[in-house]
Amino acid sequence: xxxxxxxxxxxxxxxxxxxxxxxxxxxxxxxxxxxxxxxxxxxxxxxxxxxxxxxxxxxxxxxxxxxxxxxxxxxxxxxxxxxxxxxxxxxxxxxxxxxxxxxxxxxxxxxxxxxxxxxxxxxxxxxxxxxxxxxxxxxxxxxxxxxxxxxxxxxxxxxxxxxxxxxxxxxxxxxxxxxxxxxxxxxxxxxxxxxxxxxxxxxxxxxxxxxxxxxxxxxxxxxxxxxxxxxxxxxxxxxxxxxxxxxxxxxxxxxxxxxxxxxxxxxxxxxxxxxxxxxxxxxxxxxxxxxxxxxxxxxxxxxxxxxxxxxxxxx
Length: 315
Description:
By secondary structure, the chain is an all-alpha fold. It is about 75% helix and about 0% strand. The protein has one domain.
């Protein structure tokens, strides 16, 4: 995407969420802030997935596991009396990183549908592990006594503060991912997606670059899990089921694969559509599916592709 269009899109999306609490106050609907926080958290997860899917060509069908790591980091530490958000984020990434390193090292020895299936298998192993974890409610999950604290204070109990903290984490994750993709590392990763054999022939190790990106992606996704746990004040294995991984892929495809701000926009549109359509009909997934098919038929690059055409077709 043209950098100018990309920057405008980022400014519109992030700026829109920044002023949303004011709009919610003016219209007297505080639920808008709650929905927006949920959207921002999932946008972080979609961004993380697009880093490896769009730039590394790795179709992970188990990225919801990292949401679970972040969420359960909050539940486990909170029960132990550790409530600081920074420590929760650190614990979430500390759980996600070794899992991504080990499973990624195994998964990356496969290609295509085999990679998809093995990431799914690893994620389901984690899912069933937490289902069997009776100390934290098993399949029923566990309710948090309170949200994480910030600077030693229960600031996140305020929905507006939680939204701004989640927005700050999304912006930080976006800038980090953008920096990675524009660096030498990102160019090698993209080259590996296009032709791994050629990249190896010129002296690069595709495996190391892909594995590093996979670990980074898992860590970013765990941040989304931490914020989702705080938003709902409830943690359950359902957060890491394979259906959730499929939803993340849909968000990325809808926004445009290989476009970071597109992944964020895809998460925003997908969840807004879900909220709107579910209020109209119990069969809302049918209409959502038709919308997704229509977008894909019109533009192979999703909504970001449509924006690029409107902006003059400059890539």
